[in-house]
Amino acid sequence: MRRSERRAVLTGLMFVSPWLIGFLIFTLYPVIASGYLSFTDYRVLAPPRWVGMANYHSLVIDHDYFLPSLWDTIFMFLELPLSLIMGLALALLLDQKLRGIAVYRTLFYLPSIVPVVSSAVLWMWVLNPEHGLINSVLHSMHIPGPAWLASPAWAKPAMILMDLWGVGGGMVIYLAALQGVPTSLYEAADLDGANGWKKIRYVTIPSISPVIFFNLIMGVIGTFQYFTQTYIMTNGGPNNSTLFYAIYLYQNAFQYFRMGTACAMAWILFLITLVATFVVFKSSARWVYYEGETR
Amino acid sequence: MTKMQFLRLLCAALAIVPLAGCGDGRSTSDAGVVHLQVWSMWSGDEERSFEAVLAEYHKEHPGVVVDNLGAVTDEKSVRAIIAGAPPDLFTITDPSYLGTLAANNALEPLDGQFEAAGFKDQDFTPGALDECRYQGRLYAMPYLMDCIALLYNKDVFKDAGLDPNKPPRTYDELVEDCRKITRRDAEGRLTRIGLHPVEISPALLMSMFDGRFIDERGRITADDPNNIEGVTAYMRLMDAQGGYPAVQSFASGFGANTGAFNPFFHGDVGMLISGEWNAYTAFRYSPGTHYGVVALPYPGNHPNRAGLVWLADNPFCIPRGSKHAREAWEFLKWTQTPLAQKMLASTLHNVPNLRSELHDKDLIADPPFVAKSPKDVDPNSWRPLYGKFLALADSPTATGFPTMPVASMYAKELSNVYDSVGYGTKKPAEALAAIDVRVQREMDKYQ
Amino acid sequence: MTKRTSQILGHSVLILLSIVFFAPFLFMVSTSLKADQQVFSDHIQWIPHPIVWSNYPEALKFFPFLTYLRNTLILCAGNVIGTVLSAALPAYAFSRLKWKGRDVLFYTMIATIMLPSQVTLLPVFLLFRAIGWTGTFLPLIVPAFFGKAFSIFLLRQFFLGIPQELSDAARIDGCSEWGILWRIIMPLAKPAIATIALFSFMGTWTDFQGPLIYLHNEKLYTLAIGLNSFLGRHGGEWNLLMAASTVVTVPLIIIFFVAQKTFVEGIALTGRAN
């Protein structure tokens, strides 16, 4: 390595050191440990026993729980485009300097502020098939409301609805990103006679594409790990329709004392997520525009 | 920001760290006073009730202070045991974990201490100790328990044309009563049902039909013919009130913490299979309504199940590695005295596990109450109904889920049976056979 | 469509959506003022009759509110400071420096987010136990000083949007990389910093699992655990839970409302409008 290259690596490593040290201590060891445990029968209270691929094998042929949990989780990807578009749309709407706009922004971010345990209860009421908010409104219009969380067919859409309520988090990230779009670009577009939509499509979106990319990657990872609300509200039901991957993993790890299986599940998930994000990364060369990138 | 400024900010931030390094709070003894560390599942008001009991213990045993940590989950306890730093004593929230902990040698066996203390099985509520035993050895002591029976709303019975003093005794009567109580509105939606499904675990139901979960040789018997009979009969009951999906939709929505939201307390449900704590809940949320309670109905072809109530303990265990196993046992011994039982039972509204306490007048009788204003509700009016639960608990048929290392997984698998049968995915025999295979596979790992 | 029509349409959509987003919160407040028997009713009751104000003092006495609040604030302060400081450096290295192995390390970092925490929980716990940190705040604060991948990733994306010319000009002037980071890049990234500070704060404020796992002393418990205490084994104190939740939520609403300027208008305009 040339001297300047070596210096560059040293500088890079120095800057990265806070994360790197943490990674080596807090992450690498547990990751390797979980990998090893996935090849064992580890029931937590007793030492692990090597079983090779047995955990992986029994998972992959499990039509009752593992495969449904995978399918249930993949279904939730329907939400990803919705939340990306909604978050962006809201951010665009709320990026104006109007009076009272601060109130709107706060209102839309509100769901992220409400404690999870309370919002879970709130939503169980909102979605209650008999007296809940949504069905009461539907009944008053003589539309039969679905059984939401009590219906195997509607439970997942109900959770998507609830998730979209939390779109304020993404909105905030987009709002911050919108501040970085150079006004000079908008002025140039105006000179070219571009209207509102064209400006969004050709100036705004490319400029904030790095952040859209971020939300997309985090969305993919997050969908695979979807857990908390389900744990409180449905715990996998009805009829395993909301048995998301992370829920079944949790059950194996902590309720069934099958930590080896849980680790195998975690690594299968890891590999799937790796492939999915790799695809997104590769596609990013075509639509993500970095103004300040050192290539 | 310059390097100096950065370093100064970093130092300021790290100054928080000593603040954060507040110790464990677990001193084990100072100047002759022993600190017994107990980890319990209770929080809020329930925790305060428990701590009042601990204060009473300290009054009688000045050399011991029992330090309580509340809101503890079973995972936390298991983690502490693995890490080699368990508390001196802890509760198990989900009694089905006892088998797993015992099978893995995580708990101190208590048979010796039990005998030395002069305890006899007959002193305890029937079935209470079974839940604390694994393969014949005692691994926990119960400190109060839950007793699940059939609660019914007398006002709803009257409204449906049923005799409020004749609750169903047999399973067929139960199905018929449900059919009569069920009502629909103009659009065909359910407005009232007979039996609320939320706490009828499949294990409880199968037990009503004399079902068996494990045989003497330790083999799993999930597809025992009586188990299958139970599930089929349950679906028959659901059909009598509108079908499984419709009933689930009607009764659903609030997870396990039904309490205020349970339509049973609002006159929309005629009967509830649930526990003694509801005597107090009923009083809180619907004080004017008349309720009764009776043992779980028995099927005509299984008359030996008459008097059945379903049990769930609050087991207290001493982990291996407990630093004060002796003091922990002394405390457990004390919890089996009438005073200790009475104190906690009247505030937690649970069933005493000491047989003599099931008939304690202080717990079950309505002491005289003088209303100071017309709106005053007698704060003790929950006691008579509660007392009926206690009387029911003194039944030789009382039972709970058997202890075994795979109990937690078994119970969860069984809990999925209703959904898979009720929504038409599988037939009862099929569903139970599949469970049998899976649970047996787990069980084999423990041989 | 005229400008006026599109404005009215925009406003209507906003108002409608705001109602949807706000209604559950309104329900929370409404339930917090209800008496026991009225918490659940057949028909939606927005305004309670009677209004039970005493739910609030009762809720705050249910668990040691001030103690838990103090603990939560300590954890939040530690996490926010740690996250911001430790995210800036790696984010800079991943975006504005060119060095061999950079991309490999970056992808590795992203990969670490992909492994569910349930399986790393136990080994990490045993690690902390081995160094004697369980029972303290340390496992809940110190990791923040070692860079959270989420924050590093986000900041890196922001940094990538800042033109190279600014860095190049500074380098020509003899500025060190450290100097460029703190004097040029960070001031331009205020909205991004505010964002990761906000997410770090919210994450710590609502973290239930972490404190539950590592704390053995109730005097160190946090608000998230406190809120959970309203849910007993059989039913819960719903009205009190909603009252406590409101008390916990309202200050955050005010902080967010006031701090919006940093997200939306906190960027120096020099160097942008050229």
Structure commentary:
The complex is a heterotrimer of chains A (295), B (447) and C (274). Chain A is an all-alpha fold. Helix content of chain A is 69%, strand content 1%. Chain A has one domain: MetI-like (MetI-like fold, Orthogonal Bundle), CATH 1.10.3720. With 447 residues, chain B is α+β, with helices and mostly antiparallel strands. Chain B is globular. Chain C folds into two domains: 3-53, no CATH class; 63-273, MetI-like fold. The chains are: A mainly alpha (295), B alpha+beta (447), C mainly alpha (274). Chains in contact: A-B, A-C, B-C.
Helix content of chain C: 55-70%
What is the average of the pLDDT values of chain C?
87
**What would you report as the Rg of chain C, rounded to the nearest angstrom?**
23 Å
CATH superfamily of the largest domain in chain B: Periplasmic binding protein-like II
What count of domains describes the coordinates of chain B?
A: 2
Strand content of chain C: under 5%
How many domains of chain C? The number is: 2
How big a fraction of the residues of chain B is strand? Answer: 5-15%
How would you describe the shape of chain C? globular
CATH class of the largest domain in chain C: Mainly Alpha
Tally of alpha and pi helices of chain C: 13
CATH topology of the largest domain in chain C: MetI-like fold
Q: Indicate the low-confidence ranges of chain B by residue numbers.
A: 22-28
CATH architecture of the largest domain in chain C: Orthogonal Bundle
Contiguous low-pLDDT stretches of chain C (5 residues minimum) are: 266-274
Question: Could you tell me which chain pair has the largest interface and how many residues each side has?
Answer: A-C, 101 and 105 residues
Q: How many angstroms separate the termini of chain C?
A: 33 Å
- Total strands of chain C: the figure is 0
SSE blueprint and pairings:
The complex is a heterotrimer of chains A (295), B (447) and C (274).
Chain A: H1 3-37, E1 40-41, E2 49-50, H2 54-60, H3 66-75, H4 79-93, H5 101-113, H6 116-126, H7 133-140, H8 155-164, H9 168-178, H10 183-191, H11 196-207, H12 209-224, H13 228-233, H14 245-255, H15 259-287
Antiparallel strand pairs in A: 1-2
Chain B: H1 3-14, H2 16-20, E1 29-30, E2 33-39, H3 44-60, E3 64-69, H4 74-82, E4 89-91, H5 97-103, H6 111-116, E5 133-134, E6 137-138, E7 141-153, H7 154-159, H8 171-181, E8 183-184, E9 190-196, H9 202-208, H10 225-240, H11 244-251, E10 269-275, H12 277-285, E11 291-294, E12 310-317, H13 325-335, H14 338-348, H15 361-364, H16 383-393, H17 407-415, H18 417-422, H19 428-444
Chain C: H1 3-32, H2 55-62, H3 65-96, H4 102-114, H5 117-130, H6 138-141, H7 149-159, H8 164-172, H9 177-188, H10 190-206, H11 209-214, H12 223-228, H13 238-265
Helix pairs in contact in C: 1-13, 2-13, 3-7, 3-10, 7-10, 8-9, 10-13
